[in-house]
Structure formats: C-alpha cells, structure tokens
C-alpha cells in the first residue's frame, strides 16, 4: 500500500502508486514511469485512467451534456474531465463546488480509505477528531522502543478485535479499483500516444502515422509497421470501451451481453427498508469515508 498525507496529517491509502509531488520519496515506489523525465503526475496508473477516459467520445458527450446519458453513473464520480489539468482533477475533482458530488475527487475515488494518525494528547487537532474511533493511552517515552512496540501490540490487539466484532471489519476496497495486478506505465503510454496522435492527425494514413510514431524505425517493412500500429490502436479502443464501464486497464474485448465485474461505486445497492436521516450542519461538508 502507498500512503498520501493530507492536510491535518490525515492519510489516504492507495494500492498503486499515486502521482508524485515534490514532497514524495520515490525510492520506495515499485511502479516504473514511462520515462524518468516525465512530470510526476504521469508516474501513476491513475493518470492513465483519467487520460484514456478523456479519449472516450461517449464520455465527452456526457460531459458536454452536464453528466446525462448512458455514462451518467461514471460521471457522478469522475465528473468533467475535459480540462487538461490532471492534478486539479486529482485534488479538486471534476464537479463544481456547488455540486453535491464535489467530494468525489480523483484521489478519493481511487483511495482505499482514510485514517487519522496517532497523536499526542496535547495535539490541537485531536479535539477535531473526537468523532473518530480512538482510545487515549499514556505511553512512557523513556523505555526501549522494541519493548514499547510489543507492549502496545499486546494492549491494542484485544481492543481492535472487540471493535471488529462490534462494528465489523472495514473492507479496503476503493470505489474504483485498478484491475491489472501489475500495470505497465510504459505500455499504457505507448498505447495512449498512438491513439492521441491518430486523433490529432486524422489526415495521416496508417503508414504515415506509424512513421510519425517511430514504429517504422523499430520494425522491418511496411506490413509489419502497419500491423504494429493496428495492434496499438485496437488495444486503445478496448481500453477506452472498458474505462467507460469503470474498469482500467482492462484489455479484455468483451462480447455484447458479456458481463464483467463492476467497480464498487457502480454496483447496485440493495434497497433498504428503513429510512436513515442524516442531519448536516450549515457549512459542514460530507465526507466520503
């Protein structure tokens, strides 16, 4: 798991590496970028999810129609992605501040949850977290760290186990999960570049496009270059079709009527018989977690 610290030292968890910022230590990342000179936001599979969704004609039409149409469910979470500022979408989301969906930012929909850090009793932020599940401990700081750690585990294990029995164990599943176990950013970048270049240069033939992409320099013969480009564009087509369904990077070419597992955000929730009323004070913002 990767961690990303927010304001107030709250921590978001991600199964795959989130975009790199100037505050990040990249030495522990096991996700290789397409190029080490790429900007930090491109060092993440979540950037390519956003980039391929932007290539969808159907999703673009959904954005132009204020989130209505066949992809309205996806729009609820991803919002308008027509702006080319990925980091703005990642931190602020694709919905205006007045929208009831404004809490769905990029980092929230891909996160596996949020937790509050351990704080000292005199930390002023502790008072703001009184509604969080917490216990207050008094820990001597002059002891051996390994012994303190072992004692802490013995003390907290029954407390945590009792909380799980009472409230259930939280499932660490993001609203939208990366479906590949080991996504290659180099491969995704190559496919994205091919599709974007084709879109930007509709007047070019396939062979001219292959030459522009440098494919003719890597393979021998026009037929080989044509076939190599066709494979890339076919993969792009499948990726775009599946990202419209909330799945990425999914290279499976599903047939009509063939079902694939939906992400948690798009699964139909069973109807509840009881009505729950949540009272929100003026100015209070709904939290996703």
Describe it for me?
By secondary structure, the protein is mainly alpha-helical. Among the domains are: 114-167, no CATH class; 185-254. Helix content is 36%, strand content 3%. The protein contains 9 helices and 3 strands. The chain has helices spanning 45-54, 57-64, 72-78, 86-92, 106-109, 145-167, 185-200, 206-212, 222-243; strands spanning 2-5, 11-14, 114-115. Strands 1-2-3 form a 3-stranded antiparallel beta sheet, with no helix packed on it. Strand 1 and strand 2 form a beta hairpin. Helix 1 packs parallel to helix 7, helix 7 packs across helix 9 (222-243) and helix 8 (206-212) crosses helix 9 (222-243). The longest helix is centred in the middle third of the chain and has 23 residues, at 145-167. The radius of gyration is 23 Å and the shape is elongated. The relative contact order is 0.13. Residues 273-289 have low confidence and may be disordered.
Task: Record the SSE blueprint.
Elements lengths: L1 E4 L5 E4 L30 H10 L2 H8 L7 H7 L7 H7 L13 H4 L4 E2 L29 H23 L17 H16 L5 H7 L9 H22 L46
Antiparallel strand pairs: 1-2, 2-3
Helix pairs in contact: 1-7, 7-9, 8-9
List its salient traits.
3 strands, 3-stranded antiparallel β-sheet, 289 residues
Mean pLDDT: 84
Strand content: under 5%
Gyration radius, rounded: 23 Å
Count of DSSP helices?
9
The share of residues in helices is: 25-40%
Q: What's the shape?
A: elongated
Element string (H = helix, E = strand) = EEHHHHHEHHHH
Number of strands: 3
Distance between the termini: 18 Å
Poorly predicted segments: 273-289
From the helix content, strand content and strand pairing, which structural class follows? Answer: mainly alpha
Sketch the major β-sheet. 3 strands, antiparallel
Lateral arrangement of strands in the main beta sheet: 1-2-3
């Amino acid at each position: 798991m990767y961690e990303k610290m927010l304001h107030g030292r709250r921590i978001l968890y991600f199964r795959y590496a989130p975009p790199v910022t100037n505050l990040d230590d990249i030495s522990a990342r096991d996700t290789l970028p397409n190029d080490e000179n790429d900007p930090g936001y491109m060092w993440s599979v979540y950037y390519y999810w956003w980039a391929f969704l932007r290539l969808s004609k159907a999703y673009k039409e959904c954005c132009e129609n204020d989130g209505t149409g066949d992809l309205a469910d996806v729009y609820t979470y991803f919002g308008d992605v027509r702006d080319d500022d990925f980091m703005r979408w990642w931190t602020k989301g694709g919905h205006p501040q007045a929208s009831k969906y404004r809490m769905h930012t990029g980092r929230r929909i891909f996160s596996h949850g949020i937790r509050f850090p351990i704080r000292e009793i005199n930390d002023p932020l502790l008072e703001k977290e009184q509604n969080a599940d917490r216990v207050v401990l008094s820990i001597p700081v002059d002891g051996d760290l390994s012994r303190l750690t072992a004692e802490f585990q013995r003390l907290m294990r029954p407390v945590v186990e009792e909380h799980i029995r009472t409230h259930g164990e939280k499932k660490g599943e993001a609203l939208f999960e990366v479906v590949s176990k080991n996504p290659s950013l180099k491969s995704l970048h190559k496919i994205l570049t091919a599709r974007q270049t084709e879109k930007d240069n509709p007047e070019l033939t396939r062979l001219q496009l292959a030459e522009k992409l440098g494919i003719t320099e890597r393979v021998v013969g026009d037929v080989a270059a044509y076939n190599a480009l066709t494979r890339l564009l076919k993969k792009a087509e499948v990726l775009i079709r599946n990202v419209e369904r909330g799945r990425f990077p999914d290279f499976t070419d599903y047939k009509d009527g063939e079902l694939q597992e939906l992400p948690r955000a798009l699964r139909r929730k069973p109807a509840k018989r009881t009505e729950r009323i949540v009272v929100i004070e003026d100015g209070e913002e709904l939290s996703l977690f």
